[in-house]
From TrEMBL:
UniProt cross-references to InterPro entries, sorted A to Z: Bact_solute-bd_prot1, SBP
TM ranges: none
Family matches, as PANTHER family: ARABINOSE-BINDING PROTEIN-RELATED, DIACETYLCHITOBIOSE BINDING PROTEIN DASA
Organism field: Enterococcus termitis
Name the record gives this protein: Sugar ABC transporter substrate-binding protein
Amino acid sequence: MRRKLILGVSIALLGGLLLAGCGGSKGDGASGAKEITFWNPFTGADGSNMKKMIDEYNKTNPEFKIKNVSLKETDLYAKIPTVVNSGKNIPDLTIVHAERIKQFKDNGMLKTYDGVLQEFPDIKAENYVAEAWNLGEIDGERYSLPLDIHSWGTYYNKDLLKKYAPDALDDDILTYDEIIAAGEKAKADDVRGIAVTWVKPNYLSLMAQYGGELTSDGTAPTLDITEGKQAFDMWNNMYEKGVTTQDGEDPTQLFLSEKLLFFPEGIWIQNNIKNATFEWGLTNSPQLSNDLSKTINWASSHQFVMFNSKDRSEDKEKGIGNFIDWLRDNSLEWAKAGQNPATLSLLEDSEYMEMPQSLFLKTKEEQETLKIFDYKYNGYVSEYLDAHGFDTIFGKVPVADTMKDMQKEISDKIAKDDSGK
């Protein structure tokens, strides 16, 4: 009898726990708390800034608090298809990069914000940087909302600038001609003119300045093109002239040791150089022309998306809208991470306007220099450039071979994707 009684109590307790667990998975947490599970790729220094914002939001006692889940970027993108296809443990809200959205949408993985936005009239185009806002609308529906627009620029040593290129930045635009002229002078003192850094933004920005496009129809790649060859030729020629950093050199360390004049990098790199012992500045990425209307700065954007889920209630979606709406006027902490929040309300904040990266948003003309390469297969382009770009610039592989191979490799990957559908 005693064994039967214990067994009956155990089954009852187990049943109660299972019911509680099921309620938590469909609703708002096993504890009964109302939560929005928020996946994001902020595991570095910017992760602490995001956590501070979430903590501040949660202190406002919203109906649905934000549960922060930071994952490594590679892990995040690996997990998303798995959980969405399984229909289980799908996050309520997720940050993804702008370049991923078209593919997620075409794969039928995203839910639109159209219903949510009816409740939040201030989440609208007029209140955001256009380049970050516009890409979220596809086929007349809103699939994402922007957190930021992070871009590529050029850091420079102010003392070295005075010595080797005193007039180059009078117009806040640095041209390749000015870089080469300054680099020729600087190399006599064993100072590098410009760093060879992340190839993708350097290449894409210049390729677009020459008039090139990754695709003409949104799908088929146009990579083996004259404009692309010209972009790689420019960087290879600067390397051959001896005005760039050399293969194997660390650009950040050269910059910090005052052996590098121009340092192309993302606005987010400021944490790495903030303790420099000299004065530095930030300007636009290198350009062919000093005409601001022709200036192109590579950019990307962290965007909020909702992956399809049967368990996300309308009330929870409203809670998501409330969080994103709150961020419009509470994003200074994100700017402190070296980012540029996409909300235009920050232009009224004097602290933000003193930050170096505010250069890219201060005027509408400067905002229009930002270009997000949101080609559906941008990920394949990125992978190729990351794998082969440095060898091309440093003359290990002929430029013509790189262009031909990039076109073939990415075309083959797209064909394989299509055949697997």
